[in-house]
Each structure stands twice: as C-alpha cells, then as structure tokens.
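Here is an idea for our session: we take a single protein and study its fold together. Start from the sequence, derive the backbone structure tokens from it, and show both lines together. Once you have written the record down, we can walk along the chain together:
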Amino acid sequence: MIGYWSELKLDIVREYAVAYSKILTKNRLYHVYIDAFAGSGLHISKVSGQFVKGSPLNALLIDPPFREFFFVDLVSKKTDRLRQIVGNRTDVHIYQGDCNEILRTEVLPQARYEDYRRALCLLDPYGLHLDWNVIAEAGAMKSIDIFLNFPIMDINRNFLWRHPGKIGSSQTNRLDAFWGDNSWRNIAYKTVPALFEDEEQKQENKVIADSFCDRLRKLAGFQHVSRALPMRNTRHAIVYYLLFASQKRVAKKILEDIFRKYETRGIGSGEIKH
C-alpha cells in the first residue's frame, strides 16, 4: 500500500513526463523512460483503498509516447508481475536485479548524448539502495533528466539520530555509497556550546537535502537542480524530499511550476502543508 505522499509524487512525475515527451517529440529526439525501482506496476492507496497505477504504467500511457521503456527492480516477484501486466511489448525492457549495476551497464548507454538520445529517469529507492556512481554517471552523460527520492526519514532513523561515533561501519558504508563520500559527516551535524563541553547536534533536514542538491550541481554536473520538495505523511513528518535535476533551464522551470501547483494541497483534502 502507498500513502498519499506517494500518490502525489506519481502525479508530479507523470505531469512532468507528459511535458517532457511533448518537447522531445517536437524536437524529434529519441527519448526513453527509465525507472530504477519500478515495482510491480500497481499499488493500493491507503487513502481510497483503490488500485493506483505505478510509475511504469503511468509512463506507458503518456501521449505522445516515449520510444522505449526500461524498468528495473531487485525483487523477482515484482518484475514477474510487471511482465504479466505489460505483456509482450517490444518497446518495454524489464530487468530483475541490482539497479546500480544494471543501469550503468545495460540501461544508461541507451541514452547517449552523441546518439541523439535522451532519457527521463526516476530514481525512487526504498531506502539507501542507490549508489552515487549511478547519479554521477547520469549527470556526466548530459542527456538525462532525473527525479530522485532523497530518503531523509531512512537516513535519520538509521544514521543521523544517533551520535555519529555510535554508527556502525556497515551503516556508514551505506550512507557513504549513497552520498558519494563521507562528507555528510561535516554537513549533518553542527557543534553547539553546552554547559561543560561543546556538543554535536543534527542539522535540520532541509540543510542536509540542500547540501545534496549542491552535490548534484557541483559534482554530478547537472546544470539545473530544483529546490528540494518535502513530501510529508499525515502526521506532517517529512518522509523524503523529491529532487529533480536536468541540463536544461526550461526543464527546471516546468518542474518548479508543477511543484508550486502540488505543494499547495492540504493533507485533509489531499494537501501537503509545509
């Protein structure tokens, strides 16, 4: 089952994908859709109890259509179900396995700039199951727009709510792989005066998300990165931030217009308040 915040994300991605496909079709560029954590294609809404189309099915219905679709998921039950729903479409490619390997070796090469190809890529990990190398490669290719789920709740729960000296190496390795290095340690905490000695306190969520946006610009090489949009649950807690990065100014403008449209919704009637 998915919460309202996930339905909101699906709406945002779908609306941008429609605008993106119209522009790329008009400019006669071969464009593909990539979903690195595709799931089974269908969800059940916690709000309505009804079936909700996931990102893969939304993408398949976009008009004008993308030329090809690449769906990846680690869980074989999900990819098997997705294959059943999609059928034998020759323009759809479904992979079961680790997206960090599959994207770099099989999928991203299908959207090379020099081949006049472009891609819209959804990176929506269930937690810290995405390596920075994938993001950096997508940025270096100069041909890919990305949506990224920055999983701040998972990061807080498993890492930042603890004292940094008490986080195990296996956990820090996960965050290092997602962040790209261990510089998050210097960003996530600040030193504040205390009665007997200075203490380390966790920074606000927005500070951490904004810092990751800076990495998308300065290190991954995306020219235009959106502000981080907080996605909140019914208790108003931030579940994750939705990020967007592109090489095109117009892409960011379109996305920011969509963000403004959806962020005014209220929890009680479908809005997420800030």
About this structure: The first strand starts at residue 30 and ends at 35.
